[in-house]
From TrEMBL:
It comes from Roseovarius aestuarii. Monomer. Belongs to the HMBS family. Its cofactor is dipyrromethane. The lineage of its organism: Bacteria, Pseudomonadati, Pseudomonadota, Alphaproteobacteria, Rhodobacterales. This is Porphobilinogen deaminase.
Length: 319
């Protein structure tokens, strides 16, 4: 059966949030699709969708994100538009995606993964170890907060949100002495210059799916399925399968400090995983390798081992 390609008169509609990073990701997706099918850019339409997470009033001040809605905060309205046929595909930072999709939607297309590391951003020091007691670390990521406090309990972590530009301004204003940003986001915005250093995953294990873009579609949309298959990056998919299986088995949401990174080495998949107490008083981690095709099982097994080690109440709030 011949694939009916989009055209300027019947464009493929790509849904995205409107932040500069989200738009960069949507443009990258459009460019890859246009290149794969030799189509003009006009055969694609980028549709910006406002999500609860983009609502300034909801997100204002220092209200913790977990109070507002947790995972799905940046995806619910986009998935509704996809189900309603307002858009044909949705471009997502996989780091922000819940581990399963609503009925009728699937994600089976990933773009080649960007740098997975976190960036350390500090105007006055080179490394975290150089910050004096009481220095302020600005982050709203529970994972980064717990990881910092495990290693540097003498530092203070303060709530720090907003897009890259906002956070850099807050650093300038002295709201915090340093912050962390995903290298992937900085690279996609062409702002890697703001990184003081990229942190080795052995020092700070990144979030599940960090640096990966996934493209969601309606399960029964064969045109979207065929088009996305042409740009799918298989090894990124294999990494994410293992990391997301680990997260799913931990029942992870953005309210739990969890980190994981899968890497392919030869025919094998190496998975590193970490869970932390939210107050940063304890961290448990694991590092195992298995054949690539067993990645999902590896993720699940690692989660089970860590949960057994952790015991009840490990993720309970004590802060
Ligand atoms: N939670 C927000 C978010 N979601 C994805 C990225 C960065 C890009 C990526 O990891 O793919 C960021 C910002 C950040 O953590 O600095």
């Amino acid at each position: 059966m011949k694939l009916e390609l989009p055209s300027p008169r019947t464009p493929l509609k790509l849904g995205t949030r409107g932040s500069p990073l989200a738009l960069a990701q949507a443009y990258e997706t459009r460019d890859r699709l246009a290149g794969a099918f030799d189509l003009p850019h006009e055969a694609f339409q980028i549709v910006v969708i406002k999500t609860t997470g983009d609502n300034r009033a909801m997100i204002a001040a220092d209200r913790p994100l977990k109070e507002i809605g947790g995972k799905g905060l940046f995806t619910k309205e986009i998935e509704e538009a996809l189900l309603a046929g307002v858009i044909d595909v949705a471009v997502h930072s996989m780091k922000d995606m819940p581990v399963s999709q609503p009925n009728g939607l699937v994600i089976d297309c990933y773009l080649p993964r960007e740098d997975v590391r976190d960036a350390f951003v500090a105007p006055l020091v080179d490394v975290l170890a150089d910050l004096p007691a009481g220095a302020k670390v600005g982050t709203s990521s529970l994972r980064r907060k717990a990881q910092v406090l495990v290693a540097y309990p003498h530092l203070e972590v303060v709530e720090f949100r907003g897009n890259v530009q906002t956070r850099l301004r807050k650093l300038d204003d002295g709201v915090a002495d340093c912050t962390f940003l995903a290298m992937a986001g900085l690279n996609r915005l062409d702002r890697s210059d703001v990184a003081t250093a990229a942190i080795d995953p052995d020092v700070m294990l990144p979030a599940v799916a960090q640096g990966a873009i996934g493209i969601e579609r309606r399960a029964d949309d064969t045109r979207a399925a065929d088009m996305l298959a042409a740009i799918h990056h298989a090894s990124t998919g294999q990494q994410l399968a293992a990391e997301r299986a680990f997260l799913a088995a931990l029942d992870g949401s953005c309210e739990t400090p969890i980190a994981a990174l899968a890497e392919l080495t030869g025919g094998n998949l190496r998975l590193r995983g970490e869970i932390l107490r939210p107050d940063g008083s304890e961290s448990l981690s694991d590092d195992r390798t298995a054949p690539i095709e067993d990645g999902i099982e590896l993720g699940r097994a690692m989660a089970e081992t860590l949960l057994n080690e952790a015991g009840d109440g490990f993720f309970d709030w004590r802060v």
